[in-house]
Amino acid sequence: MNWIKKRKLPATESIKFDNCPCLTPESLWNALHSLFNTALHRQVDFSILNEVACKPSQGWNPFSRYEFKSAISKYKDSSSPGPDRLMWRHWKIIIANDDCLSRIINIADACIDLGLWPKYFKVSITIVISKPNQSSYDHLKAFCPIILLNTLGKLIEKVFAKRLQFIVASNNFIHPSQLGGLKFKSTADAGIALTHIIRSGWTRGRATSSLAFDISQFFPSLNH
Hints:
224 residues, alpha+beta, 2 domains, two-stranded antiparallel ribbon, 5 strands
């Protein structure tokens, strides 16, 4: 994984970590690495999967050309590429060739059949950018990482996700209260649902309170 420092800071505004200024590339690397990769070597207890009850299974049909052409049409040509340096405009040209598209579909089908996600799709470049409108840029929380993966893996992953979401939604596997990360759901839907709960309480003479969690560094702390 490579880190690219995009914003040059004045010498008087050096980033501090553990109350010490990061004056060398090595110290800056250690600071960023400790903040954004906190779960890198954390052990995972996979035995929890044994507690999941077995459910009826269904067949998985091979991917179609339409699924890939539909997925790639949503990407903007100007999106930043990953380590492979291939932008979406390049893949749109490649996929227009039937033979190339067939080979990509074969790769996707093999991932499902083998239960394997190739290491090539896990390689990434991390670009650290500064958050806008910060009063000071001498602390790490004034920056955020942008992860750029190889675009072929992102394309196959998008096709996977769209297929899986269709299956779970059509079989009513998703709780009605789940609104995030779903097609045809938005922040407005969450607001409407909350308003409905509040007004339903009012009709019964009750008050409603809500509790929101903003867990600091939640995403970097997950062992993916």
